[in-house]
Specification:
Blueprint: E1 16-20, E2 23-30, E3 35-38, H1 41-57, H2 61-72
Antiparallel strand pairs: 1-2, 2-3
InterPro entries: DUF5753
Protein name: Scr1 family TA system antitoxin-like transcriptional regulator
Pfam families: DUF5753 (PF19054)
Length: about 70
């Protein structure tokens, strides 16, 4: 995600959104001193919204290659 996009979703920290067959999704959040599995529907939906928001502004594969090439040269 280039900084020029000035997007703030996901800046609160990393998380892992996990989907499984037959059960609702779960989010795993890990910090320096603890970790947490989020199972309640409302917060899980919030994390899904963050992922959707990031996907809407992320560069595609070709744009990513061009940015990396520009930075590297």
């Amino acid at each position: 995600m280039p900084t020029s996009r000035r997007h703030t979703a996901g800046l609160a920290g990393s998380f892992t959104f996990m989907r499984f067959t037959g059960i609702p999704p779960v989010v795993f959040v890990e910090t320096e001193n603890s970790s947490l599995f989020v199972e309640d529907k409302a917060p899980v939906t919030g994390y899904r919204t963050v992922l959707d928001s990031l996907a809407s502004v992320a560069l595609d594969e070709e744009q990513s290659r061009e940015l990396i090439s520009t930075i590297a040269t």
